[in-house]
Amino acid sequence: MTTAEKYVAAAYGVFVGVLLLYIVIYSFKMSRLEREVRELADLAESRARASEPEREQAPAL
Amino acid sequence: MSLRNNRLGALALAAAALLSAGVALAFYWAPEDADQGFSQRIFYIHVSVALTAYASFGWAAWKALRLLWRRDERYDLESYTAVHVGVMFGVLTLVTGSIWARISWGVWWSWGERQLVLFLVLFLFYSAYFMLRYSTEPGPRRARMSAVYALFGVVLIPISFLAIRLAENFIHPVVFTREGPQMSGSMFFTFLVSLAGMVALAFALHQTELAGKRLDLRLQELRKALAS
After folding, report:
1. Which residues on chain A are in Cβ contact (under 8 Å) with B95?
2. Which are the contacts of B4, defined by CB distance < 8 A and separation ≥ 6?
3. Which residue, B153, B183, B152, B177, is CA-closest to B164?
């Protein structure tokens, strides 16, 4: 491999490397968002369950 | 939502296809430059990345202008994301340019080159955008301040672009002149394919990041609503 070939490979490699790094960082962000959605869904579900007995009691009142 | 996802998928696919074609054309089809030899092949990636960085900053300024004009805050996120993508392409421009400079001129950087220094100033200006943004509380004031900053930065783009044409002593090559591109047809075609791929990639990244940031904001709103 000549010196010029090494430098050209480095330039294209840097591009691919930065792109891969971006994808890795973004995949972490997506995992965080997915976890937050799951937490919020659980919270909404527990709230709905907690308010169910109140609704059931309402006609008796 | 699924239509948007399909469009984004198609855009990412087009970017991947164009970039792969650009690399294949650069290495197997475009002729070797008589002056620079094999190292000239960095041109196809370096110039495409640099022009895409300019385009991203220009896009950010356009969205900033729309925010100030229409007072619609959704443009704030679009402008911010475009600056983010532009800075990423700015890093790539500086690194690939530096590698090319080392093999062509024997130095990693030349402070005497107006084109390089002005691009660095442009890059640092937009990097400081994040410091300004995160030093202010979220809200309409921050959106307006960020928009004004993004608009000011766009003035540097034509200066940076024209600097090389105004310079008398330069070593940075001038490829695009008033007489047209100073390269063979096959080289120019290869460059256009690479540029199209890079612009498609930047747009796909912008749209993906924007969707993520919007989702993040909605989740925060939902969390607040559920907490109250």
Report:
1. 11, 14, 18
2. B211
3. B177
Side chain identity at B80, as an amino acid letter? Y
Q: What is the ipTM of this complex?
A: 0.82
Task: For residue A7, tell me if it sits in a domain.
Answer: no
Note whether A37 contacts B219, CB cutoff 8 Å: yes
Domain boundaries, chain B: 2-28+40-227
pTM of the model: 0.86
Low-confidence ranges of chain A (pLDDT < 70): 53-61
Residues of B in contact with A43 (CB under 8 A): 226
- Alpha-carbon distance of B67 to B149, in angstroms, equals 12
Alpha-carbon gap, residue B97 to B43, rounded angstroms: 9
pLDDT score, position B117: 86
**Which of B38, B190, B207 would you mutate first to test chain A, the one with the most A CBs within 10 A?**
B38
In a domain, A19, yes or no: no
